Amino acid sequence: MYDVIVVGARCAGSPLAMLLARQGHRVLVLERSTFPSDTVSTHYIHQAGLSRLQAWGLLDRVIASGVPPIRQLNFEYTGIDIAGFADPIDGIDAVYCPRRTVLDAILVDAAREAGAEVIEGFTVTDVLFDGDRVTGVKGREGEGPEREFRATVTVGADGRNSVVADKVGAEIYRRVPAACFVYYSYYDGLDWGMHHRTAFGQQQIGTWPTNDGQNLLAVMRKNDRFGAFRRDVEGSFQEVYDQVAPELGEELRDSGVRTENFRPMRYPDNYYRTSYGPGWALVGDAGYHKDPFTGWGITDAFKYGELLAEQLHLGLSGQSPMDAALAEYVKLRDEQSNGTFELTCSLAELSLTPYYDSVFRAASQSPSYTAKFFGLIAGGIHGDEFFAPQALEALYEEVGFPQDKRLLTQA
């Protein structure tokens, strides 16, 4: 009998298991993959996420993998250019974009070192119930016999297609339609740093350095262009670079050497799912998912995995009724993630609303507000501070922004 079973061992599941095991709880982690292994990902870890790795004693391991630091961010969004970087957060003055083959292996190793039992290559096929309360899971390792495991709480950290969410009937209670698709791959021969450029015509490119001296290159387009794009992925990929950033498109054609197959990312709608019930909870994309545009997936998995670990500890140690502890986890997650969710859903449309256009255009003209912009991106400044109407009034006045463009609230 375990205290907690965690289904899924990547960016949400392994930190959760590690933190619970460090507090003396008996934890079992079941993961259908084996490590090291890859998964589609933005790779990007914000300073707020790196701060969690540092607190857990794992940031040095990520840096030691050879992933290069990024200390300059370059954003261009439909004619608005903002370049710079955030102030340090907990002494962290860079961001990193590690390969998931590297990051996830570090995380699952840390869970084991903390005392969690980890079974790789295990496919969970069903959830066990006693009445309406979840009591565990069943499944099999590879082609082996079916096995059952029982726990006080079962956590689904198994992504957007979560088996746990499906078996407990977790319903989506907030949904925003997905806007775009992404294709990406890895390239030698380029040294571009980090760029996000979105052009009129609703298409975007992204570049950032990762492990082994390679650059990850990505393009994003609206969903209605997917069929045409995939008929000639190589040509379509190059065409987007040529149109959005001609100078990069030329260098890509002349010097870029693709080292792996293209990977499509066709995410489902943005959503919040019911994320707790009797004997179960959801974390990571299993419970809350948003478009990859802002790259907050990994950082949020860390942040809310840690939050869930805190609440589970309260329940397991008898400091709070378990159901109340899990309810508090979901309440805090939804409150704290709402701003990022709304901003991400809007920006992922690849065309700014008049409000965001006015705010970001004015911010790009103010050195002090540009610094606040990068603090918002890094997770060091809350959206309530950045978008406060009184602060925007001062910004518009500082840069002499046209009166008829000064929007203080989102319509």
From TrEMBL:
Residues 2-320 form the FAD-binding domain. Gene3D superfamilies: FAD/NAD(P)-binding domain (3.50.50.60). GO terms for molecular function: FAD binding; monooxygenase activity. Pfam families: FAD_binding_3 (PF01494). Keywords: Monooxygenase, Oxidoreductase. This is Monooxygenase, FAD-binding. It comes from Streptomyces himastatinicus ATCC 53653.
